[in-house]
Amino acid sequence: MAEQFVAAPSKSNPDALLVLLKARTFIALFLVFVFFAFNAPNFMSTANMVIMSKHIAINAILAIGMTFVIVSGGIDLSVGSIVGLCGMVAGYLVLNGVDVGLGWSIQFNTLEICLLVILVGMAIGALNGFLITKLNVAPFIATLGTLYIARGAAMLSSDGRTFPNLNGNAEYGSDTFRWIGAGEVLGVPVSICLLISVGVLAAYIATRTPLGRHIYAVGGNERAAGLSGIKVNRTKYFVYIFSGFCAALVGLIISSQLVAAHPATGDTFELNAIAAAVLGGTSMSGGRGRIGGTIIGACVIGVLSDGLVMMGVSSFWQTVIKGLVIIAAVVIDQSQQKLQARVALQTQANLSK
């Protein structure tokens, strides 16, 4: 009886610790929120909550696309540059349209501008997919290359200058461009509505479609997925195109919010997206991750960033802290995997007795 009494805690303790590790993102969000609520001035004000929610939406949309890429076993370093390029494309179309020569130009309304910008983002995502699947370039190198290409193209589009005053023209129907960043739907900011739409779509794909199962299978074991009949290359194409789609949306939102487009927009955004995905439980080795967890991870990054700004912490220290957060998230994730494996072995041992 004494031996049974001593052995019981050793079995329950790993289970309790595993529950805590799985809930780490919620715990982290609660802790940072409470900390800044007491230490950052005006952190709990309505105005700050609205602003912070818009910041979170931007990072969360980008991180959702990144989650699919990481789950498939890849990485996308180009998303920040795609944000900048798509913002510049939107700014150029709003201000100038497309010059066809002989003094004529094609002008676009807001919906057409949005569709064209999204196509640009998806095209760059398709380029990433082509480099990785057809030319066998490592995802890190391929997306690093497109990072520079997209950023350079953004600079070239205006010789490094800003496209200002993106108020549009009522005559062409582009005067509603500002609504994307400043408008509301039933009192909810458009950026939050877009996050909800993208999140629901991504969660549905991940949990209710064969494509979602294929993404997880490719990330878990690409060779086994191929042997089982899964179109590995098509799956990889999809995740990079979807990531480009998310980045294009963010470019539209930011340029609309600022009513201006700058070629340096989106610099280091890829780091925040990766951090949000990893914090949300996405494994950097692929095969595991949840859209809901990624959104919570984006909330942690958003609250942390805005809270540090409100406390007057240097931007240099903010970068250091984000780096530490990413490292801590990966270490905790690895600890969770090891603990899960140990619990599984204990369960098998108990069943075999």
UniProtKB/TrEMBL annotation:
This is Ribose transport system permease protein RbsC. It is a multi-pass membrane protein. Keywords: Cell inner membrane, Cell membrane, Membrane, Transmembrane, Transmembrane helix, Transport. It is found in: Cell membrane. It comes from the Bacteria. One of its GO terms (molecular function) is transmembrane transporter activity. Pfam families: BPD_transp_2. Signal peptide: none annotated. GO terms for cellular component: plasma membrane. The chain crosses the membrane at residues 26-44, 56-75, 81-106, 113-132, 186-206, 237-260. InterPro entries: ABC_transp_permease.
